[in-house]
Specification:
This protein is of the alpha/beta class. It folds into 3 domains: about 5-45, 434 Repressor (Amino-terminal Domain) (Orthogonal Bundle); about 55-145 and about 280-310, Response regulator (Rossmann fold); about 150-280, Rossmann fold. Helices cover about 40% and strands about 20% of the residues. The chain is built from 12 helices and 12 strands. The strands form 2 sheets. A 6-stranded parallel sheet has the order 2-1-3-4-5-11, sandwiched between helices. A 6-stranded mixed sheet has the order 7-6-8-9-10-12, sandwiched between helices. It is elongated and about 80 Å long. It starts with 5 loop residues before the first helix and ends in a 10-residue tail after the last strand.
Length: about 325
């Protein structure tokens, strides 16, 4: 990225170079709107502008598993900035969490908190900047970063249809917001772009009885589909176990596609399915961007951000077009 001088910034923004210099030196005489213009231009050219006089405190609230690993990755990415990090786990010690955020400038939730936790954080610590990673639709934070369910489902539909599948079962649940949203988007994409495809939704509970539902549905091989679409990890695990128990060969007898495979899969599957998933690295990089730019965004309305998607092919979706 080309280096930019104070003179070039001033010329581009129609300001005097002394104004840019005053912004860089945190002079109180600069109007807030002018300061924001200069900061934005600096950020566009890869500069982090520090307009605070002390190291800021950022609380990173974690939960065990791949969320914790990504929280640590984010801290490593921000380690060269003028920030001080404190780790908490509100699920283990809620009062310690509230005490810690009371003196912090920002909190990054890597812990899938309930909405009431996010709201109470703001009530107890007015002005704190809240970023919620993997937010699952929970509102309240200044920035919420989560997979785009619509994009995941549409790409999944296109992939299955593109491989010639015309009879597809969607293993879903009304108890999961993300799975339900993906199911609706998948059906919508098929109805608009691939009306020749037959889609059937098999709804089940988000508990161990889901396996019994799937075993009953899949037992009659004569009416089994060519492919299963599972818009969630828990649903995918039960589907895979049912296929194994009924001795289905994947993909010879039936194909399988899932969403949302994280870097650390918490269920042991008999095979690794083809997966349309959200790029975890994007989520971490979006968090990095918003924590560094929060000072100019703090008065803005709540921000929703989504990572890109990738397709991991492991051979569980057969190509019926050949």
């Amino acid at each position: 990225m080309k280096k930019i001088t104070q003179k070039e910034i001033a010329a581009k923004l129609g300001l005097h170079v002394r104004t840019v210099s005053r912004v860089l030196n945190s002079a109180e005489s600069v109007k807030p709107a002018t300061r924001q213009l200069v900061v934005q231009e600096l950020n566009r050219h890869g500069y982090f502008f520090k307009n605070h006089t002390r190291p800021e405190t950022v609380v990173v609230d974690i939960r065990e598993g791949y969320l914790e690993k990504n929280a640590l990755r984010l801290i490593e990415m921000l380690s060269q900035r003028d920030l001080r990090f404190q780790m908490t786990d509100h699920r283990r010690d809620l009062q310690h969490f509230y005490r810690t955020v009371s003196s912090a400038d920002a909190v990054i939730f890597c812990s899938t908190p309930e909405a009431k936790i996010i709201e109470e954080t703001a009530r107890r610590s007015p002005g704190i900047y809240r970023i919620n990673l993997f937010s699952h639709g929970i509102p309240g934070a200044e920035v919420s970063i989560e997979p785009d369910n619509d994009v995941l489902a549409k790409r999944s539909a296109k992939y299955l249809a593109g491989n010639g599948h015309r009879d597809i079962w969607i293993i879903s649940s009304r108890e999961s917001v993300s799975a339900f949203e993906r199911t609706k988007s998948f059906i919508g994409e098929m109805a608009v772009s691939h009306p020749e495809c037959r889609c059937r939704i098999v709804y089940g509970p988000m508990d161990m009885t889901l396996g019994d539902v799937l075993l009953e549905e899949l037992a009659d091989r004569g009416r089994a589909p060519t492919a299963l679409y599972c818009p969630g990890l828990y649903l995918a695990w039960h589907a895979a176990m049912a296929l194994k128990k009924l001795s289905y060969r994947v993909p010879e007898d039936i194909s399988m596609l899932i969403n949302d495979l994280p870097e650390e899969f918490s269920y042991e599957l008999p095979f690794r399915p083809d997966t349309v998933y959200s790029r975890i690295s994007d989520i971490v990089e979006l968090a990095q961007f918003h924590i560094l730019n929060r000072l100019m965004l703090k008065s803005a309305s709540a921000i929703m951000a989504s990572p890109g998607t990738d397709l991991e092919i492991n051979g569980t979706v057969g190509d019926l077009t050949k």
